[in-house]
Amino acid sequence: MYLSQFLGVALSCAALCGLLSFAAYASAPQALATLTVEISNESPQPLELLGTGLDLQGAPVSSFSIASGERRELHLEGQRAWFIYGSGPRKCRFVAQHSLKQRFTDSEHTSYLPVWSRQAESIGERTASCKARLSKTLKAPPYSYSVKFSMG
C-alpha cells in the first residue's frame, strides 16, 4: 500500500517537474539572432582583416580583404562579433553585440527588452575614421539586426 502511494507521489512530482522545465524552456527566447554586418572601405588603400572573433571555417584571412571603395557583407548567427581591419599603421576595431534584458515575468509571459550595441574605434599608430551605425533591428524574437561599419 505504502509503496504504491510512494510511487504515485514520485511519478506526480516527476510529471510536475517535467511540465515546469518545459514551460521555462518554452518561455525563453530560442532562435539565434542573425547579425548582418556590412563593412565599407572608404579609404584609398585596401583593408586587411587583422583579427576576428569569428570562426572563419578554414577560409584564408586574405579572402576577407576589402578593396578601396568596396564593401563586404556577412550574415552571422549569434550575439556578438568583432573584427580588426587595417591598412598600414591605421586600424579599426569593430564590435557588434546583442543582449536581452528580462523586463517582467508573470504566470503566462516573460517579456524581454533587446539591447543592440555597436562600436568602432581607431586603434592603430595613425588615426583612422572608424564608424558604426545600427541600420535595422527586429524587435521580436529572434531579435536579428544589421550593423554598417566603415573605415576611412
From the structure above, extract its key features.
152 residues; alpha+beta; Mutm (Fpg) Protein, Chain: A, domain 2; four-stranded mixed beta sheet; four-stranded antiparallel beta sheet; 1 helix
Describe the structure.
- Keywords: Signal.
- This is Lipoprotein.
- This protein is of the alpha+beta class and 152 residues long.
- It folds into two domains: 1-28; 31-151, Mutm (Fpg) Protein, Chain: A, domain 2, CATH 2.60.270.
- Helices cover 17% and strands 47% of the residues.
- The protein has one helix and eight strands.
- The strands form two sheets. A four-stranded mixed beta sheet has the order 3-1-8-7, with no helix packed on it. A four-stranded antiparallel beta sheet has the order 2-4-5-6, with no helix packed on it.
- The longest helix has 26 residues, at 2-27.
